[in-house]
Design brief:
Helix 2 runs parallel beside helix 4. The N and C termini lie far apart (41 Å). It is built from twelve helices and nine strands. The N terminus is likely disordered. The relative contact order is 0.11. The radius of gyration is 19 Å and the shape is globular. Helix content is 47%, strand content 13%. The chain is α/β, with parallel strands linked by helices. The longest helix has 20 residues.
Length: 284
C-alpha cells in the first residue's frame, strides 16, 4: 500500500516557505500570508483519492514549519466542498483489501485530521453544496467554517455499512454541536442543512454562494494580520485542553500567556495603544 503514503515531499524543519508550493492533486494559491487549498474535481463534487489524502496530510504537516503561511482557507470548486472518498477510486478498492491494508488506510485518513489539528495556522473552511464523508471530517477538523444556504453536511459512513466513528468524528462532532445532535447525524447519516448547522454551531456564518470566498478570504486576511504566534498558541490550547481538568487548563493557560507576553507583538500592541495607533503584528 505504498501508494497511500504518497511520494516523499521535500518538506522538513528547514523548509519554512510554502508560498511557491506546487500541488499535484488540488489547487494551491498563496497571497498576503493566506494559503488557499481548493479541491478541484468539480465534475465529481471534489472527491478525495488515495493520492489527494496523502498530499493533503503531507502539506498540513509541512505547515508546521511554514513561517510565511499565517492562515489557511480550505474550499472546493464548482459549487461543492467535497463528496468524500471517491466511490470508484477508494471505496471499490477497499472492498478487496486485507485487514492490514485497511488499517493502514484508515490510519492515514485519521492522520490527515491530526495534521490539520496540529498545524499552528487557523484553518477557515468555505463550504458550499455537498460536504460529505471525509469532506465533512475535513470541515469539522477546520477551526472556523463559513457556509451557504445550499450547504449539506453529512457524516454518511453508516450509509455504506460503516460505523459513524471515522477520522475522529465521535470525538470532534459532539464537542462542536452536542452529544445528542452528533449521535443523530452519526447514526442516521442524514444531511445537516445549513440552517441547522448555523443554529447548532457548526457554521460560524452563512453567506450567499457568490460572496462565500470573499468572506472567507476577508476573515483569513484579518486573522493573518493579527499576532500569528498568539493565534498558534490559541489553537494549541483549544486542542490540548480537551484532555485537561479545569485546574490543569488554568495552569497551562498561565504558562501559555506568559510565553506570549515575551513576544515582540505584545510589546508592539502596548506601544501602539500608547501612541493611539493600530498595532502592526509580525508574528515574533
Amino acid at each position: 500500500m505504498k501508494h497511500y503514503i504518497g511520494p516523499a515531499n521535500p518538506m522538513h524543519a528547514q523548509f519554512d516557505a510554502l508560498a511557491a508550493y506546487q500541488a499535484q492533486h488540488f489547487a494551491y494559491a498563496f497571497d498576503s500570508g493566506v494559503a488557499t487549498l481548493t479541491l478541484n474535481r468539480p465534475e465529481r463534487k471534489n472527491p478525495l483519492t488515495f493520492e489527494s489524502y496523502a498530499e493533503l496530510r503531507d502539506l498540513f504537516r509541512a505547515l508546521n514549519y511554514a513561517t510565511d503561511v499565517k492562515v489557511i482557507v480550505l474550499t472546493g470548486a464548482g459549487g461543492n466542498f467535497c463528496s468524500g472518498g471517491d466511490v470508484h477510486e477508494i471505496i471499490g478498492p477497499l472492498t478487496k483489501m486485507t485487514m492490514p491494508e485497511l488499517l493502514e488506510f484508515t490510519r492515514m485518513t485519521g492522520d490527515l485530521v491530526k495534521a490539520m489539528r496540529a498545524c499552528p495556522q487557523p484553518i477557515v473552511a468555505a463550504i458550499d453544496g455537498i460536504c460529505a464523508g471525509a469532506g465533512a471530517m475535513m470541515a469539522l477538523a477546520s477551526d472556523l467554517r463559513l457556509g451557504t444556504a445550499q450547504a449539506r453536511t453529512a457524516f454518511l459512513f453508516t450509509r455504506v455499512g460503516l460505523a459513524g466513528a471515522d477520522m475522529g468524528a465521535c470525538a470532534l462532532l459532539p464537542r462542536l454541536i452536542g452529544q445528542g445532535r452528533a449521535s443523530e447525524l452519526l447514526f442516521t447519516g442524514r444531511a445537516m442543512n445549513a440552517d441547522e448547522g448555523l443554529q447548532w454551531g457548526f457554521f460560524n456564518a452563512l453567506h450567499a454562494p457568490e460572496a462565500l470566498m470573499e468572506a472567507a478570504q476577508k476573515l483569513a486576511r484579518d486573522l493573518a494580520s493579527g499576532p500569528s504566534f498568539a493565534h498558534a498558541m490559541t489553537k494549541t490550547m483549544l486542542h490540548q485542553e480537551w484532555a485537561m481538568t479545569l485546574d490543569q487548563a488554568i495552569e497551562a493557560e498561565a504558562q501559555a500567556q506568559a510565553i506570549c507576553m515575551q513576544t515582540q507583538d505584545f510589546t508592539r500592541a502596548y506601544e501602539a495603544f500608547a501612541a493611539k495607533e493600530k498595532p502592526v503584528f509580525q508574528g515574533d
